[in-house]
Amino acid sequence: MDPRLRGDDEQKQNTSMPANCQLCDCMESHPAHDILIALREDDLDSAIEHGLLDAQPCPGCSERCSASLIEARDQRRRGLAARERFRARETRLARRAAERDAARNIAAKQPAALPPAAAAALARAKAKAAGRSSQ
Q1: Domain limits at 55?
Q2: pLDDT digits (tens, 9 = 90+) for 84-103
Q3: Is position 104 within any domain?
Q4: Long-range contacts: 78-82, Cβ < 8 Å, 24+?
Q5: 42 falls within a domain
Q6: Which residues contact 96 (CB under 8 A, 6 or more apart)?
Q7: Domain-located, residue 119
Q8: pLDDT, tens only, 1-56
Q9: Is residue 23 part of a domain?
Q10: Cα 39 from chain centroid?
Q11: Based on the structure, what is the number of domains in the chain?
């Protein structure tokens, strides 16, 4: 039947079935083939939707074909792990900055403590000034 004359439901059914591999001579029907087709078309979103992150190579595909799937899968996993590490680092740095700001605010509200010798000298000067003003 001409694809233009088929109904939408029939087209959807045909696109959801794993295709034969277009990269090698494999004739098996395997989900990895849809992922490889999406990768070949540079459609990473579609490859992920088809299960790229958990993909296992087709046992009937050539070594080169299987290696390209494994490489793409592992590369994407490394990318996602790096993004997660970056986000964790940003969260950690933001938390540390907030703790530092909170400590600075607390320190700014408290009067600075004088060393003991300076505090004693200030107390003597205040006492002496108080003694002069009372006379």
Answers
A1: 17-110
A2: 999 999 999 999 999 999 98
A3: yes
A4: 80/53
A5: yes
A6: none
A7: no
A8: 344 444 444 444 444 555 678 778 788 888 888 899 899 899 989 999 999 999 99
A9: yes
A10: 22
A11: 1
